[in-house]
Design a protein that fits this description.
The protein is 31% helix and 24% strand. It is an alpha+beta fold and 127 residues long. It has a 5-stranded antiparallel sheet, sandwiched between helices. Strand 3 and strand 4 form a beta hairpin. The radius of gyration is 15 Å and the shape is elongated.
Length: 127
């Protein structure tokens, strides 16, 4: 699944990311305000979507692995039942200079959902 808009491409990551690309993803997410992200957490993602301008990663989205204990705790805390196997959106971030352009960041969740539905196991995201 790939979407192109002007100079941008958004696609589900299906190959192993090298350390430089993984580092770029972490930097983009941190710049977006996430306080607790690192390459280990991204490697554990069950799906990872990348927005690229040419060959440069300018946006990233991830799905966290299922955490049944955490989901049960949150459901009790908020007083609303939902399946403990519910997958959680991890991060959605776009590089600051790209936010004013036509970066298709809104399509990242669509790719993450497609990755979850189309895959019986998590993709390889990092070494």
């Amino acid at each position: 699944m790939t979407e192109a808009r002007s100079d941008y491409r958004v696609a589900l990551c299906t190959r192993e990311l090298g350390e430089a690309d993984l580092g770029r993803c972490v930097t983009t997410i941190r710049a977006g305000g996430a306080v607790d992200v690192d390459s280990t957490k991204l490697r554990a993602a069950t799906a990872l979507a990348l927005a690229k301008n040419g060959d440069e990663i300018v946006g990233v989205g991830s799905m966290k692995p299922v955490r049944t204990g955490y989901a049960t705790c949150i459901a009790k805390k908020i007083g609303f039942e939902f399946p403990s196997e519910t997958q959680e959106l991890g991060y959605i971030a776009v590089d600051a200079p790209q936010r004013e352009r036509d970066c298709p960041i809104g399509s990242l969740p669509n790719f993450l959902g497609a990755g979850r539905a189309d895959s019986s196991r998590p993709p390889t995201i990092g070494s």
